[in-house]
Amino acid sequence: MSQTSERHESSGTGLGGRATSRRAPAGFTFAEVLLATLVAGTMLVTATSALTATARTQDQLVGEPVTAFSLAREMHSLALTLPHDTGDGAPASSGSGIALLEDLDGAVFSPPVGAGCGTLAHASGWTQVVAVDTVSLDDPTRVSADPSAEATLLRLSVTVLEGRTDHGTYVWWLNP
């Protein structure tokens, strides 16, 4: 190989004085930038939509069950303080009509009633439906024919509704 041809290869010039390059051109083409922007934008919109839906779902799951359970718990707290004596057998129509545990059986409170027998005005769209049943210890799913029998428990069931939507039935066991 001649000295001239070695010099041309190492200097980046070819025969005839034309420049040769061993490096790729620097930067991105317009099409590459456009495609990357399209992909990044699509991912951002998808992530934002998913995050918004998750936040909405969490608000529903956290807010409604807590409210429903809280309203049922108010009725349970009230039931714990009431005497278990026999009364007229008619369910109470408002908080002021509750004097005995028996007054809760079959009662429907809308707006709901709190543990102090007062109306819970902040929950005006909600309803408490209450049932008090005497059940057999042998089979708690069976209502006892004789409420005065020794082997019985009282089952307090509170169904909580928001409008017509049922948000659950909560059950507690009470000593007779």
- SS element count, helices: 2
Which sequence of strands runs across the widest sheet?
Answer: 1-2-3-4
Overall pLDDT level? 83
The number of domains is 1
Describe this structure in words.
The structure is a single chain. The protein has 176 residues and is α+β, with helices and mostly antiparallel strands. The chain has one domain. Helix content is 35%, strand content 19%. It is built from 2 helices and 4 strands. The chain has helices at 3-11, 30-81; strands at 108-109, 126-136, 152-162, 165-174. The chain has a 4-stranded antiparallel sheet with strand order 1-2-3-4, covered by helices on one side.
What features would you highlight for this structure?
176 residues, alpha+beta, 4-stranded antiparallel β-sheet, 2 helices
Quickly describe the structure.
This protein is α+β, with helices and mostly antiparallel strands and 176 residues long. The chain has one domain (51-174). 35% of the residues lie in helices and 19% in strands.
Describe the SSE topology.
Layout: H1 3-11, H2 30-81, E1 108-109, E2 126-136, E3 152-162, E4 165-174
Antiparallel strand pairs: 1-2, 2-3, 3-4
